[in-house]
Write a structure and sequence with these properties.
This protein is of the alpha+beta class. The chain is built from 22 helices and 29 strands. An 8-stranded mixed β-sheet has the order 3-5-1-12-9-10-11-20, with helices on both faces. The protein has a 5-stranded mixed β-sheet with strand order 7-15-14-13-8. Strands 16-27-28-29 form a 4-stranded mixed β-sheet, with helices on both faces. Strand 17 and strand 18 form a beta hairpin. Helix 11 runs parallel beside helix 12 and helix 12 packs parallel to helix 20. The chain is globular, with a radius of gyration of 28 Å. The structure holds ligand MTE, hypoxanthine and dioxothiomolybdenum(VI) ion. Ligand MTE binds next to helix 17 and helix 19.
Length: about 850
């Protein structure tokens, strides 16, 4: 990637002997240098693992094709393959299923339907509102009615298409606006309010009314959804699943089979990406395969084909918004009424917490004084939307950022100044609309630094001058901040467990409740454990997530994987270290507190011994060489009913400056330059964190530019393959792509002083959307800019022409451009308050 040349953190880690040894181990090859084979040998004391850019523990194995995914696990003899039977109707009565033709196909063994479920026909998830297999009704195109079992994957897939489902169509709700009108909800609406928004709007110097629509996003993990269920002796089950939440798979499978949790063991070595799409929705594969395995008494694998993955599984929630905002002449917001209509799809899944997080992030970085937010969790006849990197945060933030841009254009101010004007204060204006005090706010200095380093002011002037001379191409630039709350909003999930085993040769295994999806969790956990024991990183091996090792683990999600699991692992390692320290203190007649673990040695005032030697001695003296560790996040609490309290332990901050160009004839756009300043606290692994920031940003850019999901008027998702659904390619990475870290540790006590990094950078890409709107504004000056997200060429063209049409012929209602966008069919109840422009 040409982007790498601009990146400011060095990646020279492969020069480390211990890292090379780890690489060799991952390849399954002997280390190149025989001296490194004794990676347990003494290392210089400065060789600490955390804080260094050691490569991802699986990187070499992954590029060598030697890393194991579920579909790579050698199949047990007699394994059958399952393929899903999909509903072809968005909403209807399921009158019958004719399996005769499918059963006659080569290799087919059976067809599994709802009647074959031994336990509860509803999934064992929190909301308990989703059938395992569709029964009396079907609720979206792609809903799974059953699975066909055959000797090979292709035989199963071909036969699944031969199953004839008799469905009597019923009226379907496909658009979120229709669901809102029909009051069709998966969960009741939630209202959060502070002060008196209506009164504030009434007395505001300026008001704006607007609507906005933001599309969903397909996860497009490179490894699709897959599960492999292998029956064990005495009604016990082993499930290999590509999942962010092995514990939930365990619950769902035992629930569906009607057996106890202890009889189901779930293992996940790694995922080829999850991005939230495997937080819950990997469970269906496992349940379907388990029901089939239960009926046929044989191992069953279910790997969705990519098109089916698109049609079956949920996506990022599309949102529609309506807002009234009041502000003063300086651009400071004085009142806000915001309605969010959340398209949840046909069942609740994680929609409640996703919609909550959107409410929590509707402020992004800004103090909302008098505010009223309504959040409607709409039920439509589409896939059940689910977690996706940011988990509603992006959808909460984008609308307030759009409002900031609108205010700036209305007042003729620079959008950065409007954003700065509205930032949370220090010691004043610092309490969120959900009553949490923002104590760790660094955005003012962070934005100032980025403004300087990106030369924003100068560039915006240059761009404005350049645009004047450019007939077709127009550029735009924007800086947007991110303030993202870290912790699961469901407080109970903020706990984690780990096991650290030290073997008698001094090698260490760590296991924790988190899962590896590419984000580098195992690497960071191993780094922390290595330092706690003072051993080289190559001596520590992180092993597959396994419900029989760590029970009741939370999903690896909410970016909290390292915060939770690395701390739990650190505590586990500390217990072992304490055992060893006490033992060595006895030998050397010193206090246990005087014993140090460093550079592969155990050091007391009397002298140093190799860690390996201490371990052998300790074993011979019957000292426990392994331990568990448990961590729960302190300080957090909140009231689920009113959404008030302290849902987050701390905030992760960042900002991005993005420059774009649009072609005003075709609507095409490019992201030209990106400068990011992001807060990861003290980085445990700078290379991995930069990867997360780059990857998150590019994924967010895809969401807001090219990744468009199109359902046709029957409710079929017509963009169900990479031919029509466009994620960013390497060529879309901006040529100038610079990532810097904010140089300050986490102000809260978090592992190594680090901050969570998995999701926050995705929202830096809102700067792309705002830069595109800036470019449209340059092309069509003096008008409001309405740009539907994703900003595909069509939407950019539409935005140009909407603004253009507005200039020629103001809409008769006199409501201006924003109103024009929702004329007639916004689905929002018309607000009774009078609307004023500017
Ligand atoms: N990075 C990679 N490479 N692959 C992924 O699937 N998922 C993201 C983020 N980064 C993801 C990723 C999401 S949605 C989350 S919540 C976090 O990683 C989860 O991991 P963490 O909590 O360990 O950061
Ligand atoms: N993030 C991700 N997953 C979750 C959350 C959250 O805040 N709450 C419940 N599941
Ligand atoms: Mo991430 S959306 O919390 O899995």
């Amino acid at each position: 990637m040409n982007a790498a040349k601009d990146i400011s953190v060095s990646r020279d880690a492969v020069a480390d002997p211990e890292v090379r040894a780890a690489n060799a181990r991952a390849d399954g090859l002997p280390p190149a240098d025989p001296a490194e084979k004794t990676s347990l040998a003494r290392l210089p004391a400065h060789a600490r693992a955390a804080g260094r850019s050691t490569p991802h523990e699986s990187a070499r194995a992954q590029v060598a094709g030697a890393a194991t995914y579920v579909d790579d696990i050698p199949e047990v003899r007699g394994t059958l393959h399952a393929a899903p039977i999909l509903s072809t109707v968005a909403h209807g009565k399921l009158l019958g299923v004719d399996t005769a033709a499918a059963l006659a196909m080569p290799g087919v063994r059976d067809v599994i339907l709802a009647r074959d479920i031994p336990g509860d026909p509803l999934l064992g998830n929190f909301s308990h509102d989703e059938p395992v297999f569709a029964r009396e009704t079907v609720q979206h195109i792609g809903q799974v009615i059953g699975v066909v079992l055959a000797g090979t994957v292709m035989q199963a897939r071909r036969a699944a298409r031969k199953v004839v489902c008799k469905i009597e169509p019923l009226p379907a709700l496909l658009k979120v606006q229709d669901a809102l009108k029909a009051e069709s909800y998966v969960l009741p609406p939630v209202f959060v309010k502070r002060g008196d928004a209506a009164a504030a709007l009434k007395k505001a110097a300026h008001t704006l009314h607007g609507t906005l629509e933001v599309g969903g996003q397909e996860h497009f993990y490179l490894e699709g959804q897959v599960a492999y269920v292998v029956p064990q002796e005495q009604q016990q089950w082993l499930v290999y699943s590509s999942t962010q939440h092995p514990g939930e798979i365990q619950h769902w499978v035992s629930h569906a089979l009607g057996i106890a949790n202890h009889a189901v063991r779930v293992e996940c070595r790694r995922m080829g990406g999850g991005f939230g799409g495997k937080e819950t929705q990997s469970g269906q594969m496992a349940v379907w395969a388990a029901i089939a395995a239960h009926k046929l008494h044989c191992p069953v694998k279910l790997r969705l084909d990519r098109d089916d993955d698109f049609l079956v599984t949920g996506k990022r929630h599309p949102f529609a918004y309506e807002y009234d905002v009041g502000f003063d002449a300086t651009g400071r917001l004085t009142g806000l009424k915001l309605t969010m209509a959340v398209n949840c799809g046909f069942s609740a899944d994680l929609s409640g917490p996703v919609a909550d997080r959107a409410v929590f992030h509707a402020d992004n970085a800004y103090f909302l004084e008098d505010v009223e937010i309504a959040s409607y969790r709409c039920k439509t006849n589409t896939q059940s939307n689910t977690a996706f990197r940011g988990f509603g945060g992006p959808q909460g933030m984008i609308v307030i950022e759009a409002i900031m841009g609108d205010i700036a254009r209305t007042l003729g101010l620079d959008a950065l100044d409007v954003r700065k004007r509205n930032l949370y204060g220090i010691g004043e204006r610092d309490t969120t609309h959900y009553q949490m005090k923002v104590e760790d706010n660094i955005l003012e200095p962070l934005l100032a630094k980025l403004e300087q380093s990106s030369q924003y002011r100068q560039r915006r002037k240059t761009i404005a001058a350049w645009n004047k001379t450019s007939p077709v191409i127009q550029r735009g630039i924007a800086i947007t901040p991110v303030k993202f709350g870290i912790s699961f909003t469901a407080t109970l999930f903020n706990q984690a467990g780990a096991l650290v085993h030290v073997y008698t040769d001094g090698s260490v295994q760590v296991n924790h409740g988190g899962t590896e999806m590419g984000q580098g969790l195992n690497t960071k956990v191993a780094q922390i454990v290595a330092d706690e024991l003072g051993v080289p990183l190559a001596q520590v091996l992180a092993t597959a997530s396994d419900t029989s090792k760590i029970p009741n683990a939370s999903a690896t999600a909410a970016s909290a994987g390292t915060d939770l699991n690395a701390r739990a692992a650190q505590y586990a390692a500390r217990n072992v270290r304490d055992n060893l320290a006490q033992f060595v203190a006895g030998l050397d007649r010193c206090g246990a507190g005087a014993v140090q673990f460093e550079g592969g040695e155990v050091i007391t005032p009397a002298g140093a011994r190799p860690f390996t030697e201490v371990v052998k001695l300790a074993y011979a003296n019957r000292i426990q060489l392994w331990s568990d560790g448990f961590y729960r996040t302190p300080k957090i609490h909140y009231d689920k009913a009113t959404l008030t309290g302290r849902p987050f332990y701390y905030f992760a901050y960042g900002a991005a400056c993005t420059e774009v160009a649009i072609d005003t004839l075709t609507g095409e756009s490019r992201v030209l330059k990106v400068d990011i300043l992001h807060d990861v606290g003290t980085s445990i692994n700078p290379a991995i964190d930069i990867g997360q920031i780059e990857g998150g940003f590019i994924q967010g850019m895809g969401w807001l530019t090219t990744e468009q999901l199109v359902w046709n008027d029957k409710g079929l998702l017509s963009t169900h393959a990479p031919s029509t659904y466009k994620i960013p390619a390497t060529g879309d990475v901006p040529e100038h792509f610079k990532v810097d870290f904010w140089p300050e540790p986490n102000r809260e006590d978090n592992v190594f002083g680090s901050k969570a990094v998995g999701e926050p950078p995705l929202m830096l890409a809102i700067s792309v959307y705002e830069a595109l709107r800036d470019a449209v504004a340059f092309a069509r000056p003096g008008r409001a800019v309405v740009l539907e997200a994703p900003a595909t060429p069509e939407h950019v063209l539409q935005s140009l022409s909407l603004s253009w049409r507005g200039l020629l012929a103001p809409s008769p209602s006199g409501r201006g451009n924003h109103a024009e966008n929702d004329a007639g069919d916004s689905g929002f109840a018309p607000s009774p308050s009078g609307r004023r422009q500017g």
